[in-house]
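anyone seen this seq b4? input:
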Amino acid sequence: MHNMSFSQDILRWYAEHKRTLPWRGTKDPYKIWLSEIMLQQTRVAQGTPYYLKFITRFPTVVELAKASEEEVLKLWQGLGYYSRARNLHATAKKVAFELDGKFPTTYKELLKLKGVGDYTASAIASFCFNEPQPVVDGNVYRVLSRYFGVDTPINSSKGVTYFKKLAHEVMNVDHIADYNQGIMEFGAIQCAPQNPYCLHCPLNESCVALQKNLVKQLPVKLKKTKVRNRYFNYLVPLVENTDGSYTTQLQQRRDKGIWQNLWEFPLFESEGDVGINEINLKLWDVLALEEVRNVKLHNEQPIVHKLSHQHLHTRFWIVRSNTISSNCVPFDTLQDYPVPVLIADFIKTLKNSYF
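predicted toks r here
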């Protein structure tokens, strides 16, 4: 239906402009899978050092499977969307222990792995096994939507089906690995979200968005769900030991939802910003402390930590005490625990201001 020149132009552009990335040029499904999971909600520049860290520490899927979840989360710390790391670990175990260390070789079988959706399955199947499956990620949506002038919202179910079908029709079956990587790279570099280089684009003569002046309007995305505001008060116990060292308290987040299995200080979540009186009333519930020497607010301005659907308005309260009831952690071992970035940043400032 669509002329062949589209995919030929993409392949030609890719051969000339592709970036050298550590997972390019490999057909090892473990490395492709790892890089794709990491890059799902993360820019290449941010994800690359993590990829290299993981590959160095876990050269094969078996080594990753044998690691503790604690270590996997710790290495992942800072990448966010931690369910990716937990699914990564679960899938590594499945491949290593149930599939004899070998990844499935087809799109259909790959889809059955935890954390592997349509996009990742298509990527692994096409990059490693030359299966003609088109990849559709944010970059691909943008290129197709602009080039063919499609204003169906990319995050509607109609849009998802339509673009997958379109991607299928225009893909280059004979060079599927390079074509798929090429169209994604083209979207990342040439047909960028802001200020694409239309003037020097090899597709500019037949791009509908450029002809109709719709480049800025496409692709169309339906408005996101409303952001939920949450108010976090971390109560940070500090007990000075006789040798001058300090002990504090950590707990692990167990419930589904944000930061599952990461560690944090004892938490009191309130309906809005609270003052010292409410905090004092909560000390027993949250910390089970009999005697408290004093409580001091560490940050007057709440730190607003933005996640995709929630904003956490966070304050840290330093609680000086002579005892700690449970989950004691020597202050100088805090860096061994996988924690959310919000907590990691706070620990740094605390070290600077107290120690």
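Residues 83-98 form the longest helix (16 residues). The beta strands are 228-240, 246-249, 251-252, 263-264, 267-270, 292-297, 303-306, 310-321, 328-330. kinda curious what u guys think
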